[in-house]
Design goal:
Blueprint lengths: L5 H12 L4 H17 L6 H15 L3 E7 L5 H10 L4 E7 L7 E4 L4 E3 L2 H12 L1
Parallel strand pairs: 1-2
Antiparallel strand pairs: 1-3, 3-4
Length: about 130
């Protein structure tokens, strides 16, 4: 029997509860929690909730991106970067001085690495 991943549980929960409200929503959530407990997946609740939130945002047309830069980005530049990815963008911004300069952007399925550290490593590899 195949094991379900947290993402599969999250998608199922979203699909089941998408148009429910009130007592029907409460009952569906109660049944879902009972199922997760019965299948001994309670340790994965945090992952299931995170996957649920991500899936719900995706269904609502919200794009999530992670931006890593060597220094703090000003709001104008941050807005330009977010605009490239669409109208409904949520960005998590992190400062990591180890990348030396430039930025790295991660979406659900892509990593755009324009960091100076990566460029220097590529140059080193091409010289060797």
């Amino acid at each position: 029997m195949a094991k379900n991943t947290p993402k599969q549980y999250a998608v199922a929960l979203y699909e089941i509860t998408e148009k429910l409200s009130g007592a029907k929503l409460s009952e569906a959530l109660k049944e879902f929690v009972t199922l997760v407990i019965r299948e001994h997946k309670t340790k994965q609740f945090d992952k299931i909730i995170k996957e649920f939130e991500s899936y719900a945002k995706k269904k609502e047309g919200i794009v999530e991106i992670d931006i890593v830069s060597a220094r703090e980005l000003d709001q104008k530049l941050l807005n330009k970067i977010m605009h490239v990815f669409g109208k409904n963008v949520e960005a998590e911004v992190t400062v990591d001085e180890s990348i030396l300069g430039g930025i790295k952007i991660k979406t659900e399925d892509k990593i755009l690495d324009g960091s100076l550290k990566t460029q220097l490593l590529k140059l080193k590899e091409s010289i060797i």
